[in-house]
Each structure stands twice: as structure tokens, then as C-alpha cells.
């Protein structure tokens, strides 16, 4: 039984890795669909874990996804006793070297972020309701990270102080249950 479980875990790990590095033509390209398939479960799970902690300190109730080497990031924090979530996408306001393409800016706007960077990052603040799920938030974060900052699966760093200390690489797993 233990050997079968080990083989299943090994095959699942290999499949996720192979999916993330599927080659298209002569260039290792990762599509948005593959990127979401590999990362969305982990991100939605972390958002849910943050939500499950008693909301005693709003300042620790955040998740940051950072596209390695770009200064591009998306971060969200739950606030007001988990009745709302405030999210930001890097605008270049704090990191002048960050350049966002017109299509990246369009993506940011399409996912509900303001596009006014005159006083800080692009942001949105929405109530958490029955119609807004953790998957929806994860999807917004990941699509923005992928399209605006060219993030790829093996190059996403995360910070989530209610879940772990310090910065880590985003764990990948193919989500089979939606």
C-alpha cells in the first residue's frame, strides 16, 4: 500500500512538473490554462487558510504572490473581520524599474484593479460574499501575475505569515477537484 501511494505521489509530481514545462515548438512555453491548473489550488487553499484563522490582527492576514526577478506582485489582505478583501497589484510607483505593457495594464483593469498609480499600487477592495469565492480571488491574482508580470510556475515566491514564516516558493499541484 505504501509503495502504491509513493508511486501515485511520484506520478502526480512528475505530471505537474511535465505540465508546467510542456514544450511548444522549440520554446518551453506555459499557457495561462496550464499556469492556472498548476497554481490555482495552492493559492485558493492559502486564502482559505488565512480566512480560517480568527481575525485578530488584520495586518497578518495577507498573501503575496511575487513574480521572481520582476518586482511584479499581487497581494491581498482580508480585513474588517473577514467581511472584505483588499488587493493590490504592483504599479511601478514603489519600484520605478517595473514596466507594465499596455496589455498588462488592460489585464489589471479587467480583473477589477484601479489603474491609477499616482498615489500607489493598483488596487481593489471588495466585500467577501457568497458569490466571491476563494477560487475567484486566486484566479484574479494568478491571471494578473501571469499576464501583467510574465510570471511562470517555477518562479513565484509567496509570503503568508499566518501560514508560514519568511518567503517560500509557491508549491505546485494539479487541482483535480474544482
Could you give the topology of this structure?
Blueprint: H1 2-20, E1 23-24, E2 27-28, H2 32-52, E3 62-67, E4 72-79, E5 84-89, H3 102-110, E6 122-127, H4 134-149, E7 156-159, E8 167-169
Can you offer a commentary on this structure?
The model is unreliable at 1-28 (pLDDT under 50). A hairpin with a 4-residue loop joins β4 and β5. This protein starts with a helix and ends in a 9-residue tail after the last strand. α2 (32-52) crosses α4 and α3 packs antiparallel against α4. The protein has 178 residues and is α+β, with helices and mostly antiparallel strands. The chain has four helices and eight strands; from the N terminus they run αββαβββαβαββ. It has one domain. The relative contact order is 0.21. It is 37% helix and 21% strand. The strands form two sheets. It has a six-stranded antiparallel sheet with strand order 6-5-4-3-7-8, with helices on one face. Strands 1-2 form a two-stranded antiparallel ribbon. It has helices at 2-20, 32-52, 102-110, 134-149; strands spanning 23-24, 27-28, 62-67, 72-79, 84-89, 122-127, 156-159, 167-169. It is globular and about 40 Å long.
Amino acid at each position: 500500500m505504501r509503495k502504491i501511494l509513493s508511486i501515485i505521489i511520484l506520478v502526480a509530481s512528475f505530471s505537474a512538473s511535465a505540465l508546467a514545462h510542456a514544450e511548444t515548438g522549440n520554446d518551453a512555453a506555459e499557457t495561462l490554462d496550464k499556469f492556472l491548473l498548476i497554481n490555482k489550488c495552492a493559492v485558493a487553499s492559502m486564502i482559505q487558510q488565512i480566512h480560517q484563522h480568527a481575525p485578530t490582527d488584520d495586518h497578518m492576514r495577507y498573501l503575496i504572490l511575487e513574480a521572481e526577478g520582476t518586482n511584479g506582485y499581487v497581494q491581498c489582505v482580508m480585513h474588517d473581520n473577514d467581511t472584505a478583501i483588499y488587493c493590490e497589484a504592483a504599479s511601478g510607483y514603489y519600484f520605478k524599474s517595473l514596466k507594465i505593457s499596455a496589455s498588462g495594464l488592460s489585464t489589471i483593469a479587467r480583473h477589477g484593479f484601479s489603474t491609477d498609480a499616482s498615489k500607489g499600487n493598483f488596487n481593489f477592495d471588495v466585500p467577501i460574499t457568497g458569490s466571491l469565492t476563494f477560487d475567484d480571488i486566486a484566479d484574479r491574482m494568478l491571471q494578473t501575475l501571469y499576464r501583467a508580470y510574465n510570471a511562470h510556475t517555477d518562479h513565484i515566491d509567496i509570503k503568508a505569515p499566518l501560514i508560514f514564516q519568511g518567503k517560500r516558493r509557491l508549491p505546485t499541484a494539479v487541482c483535480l477537484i474544482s
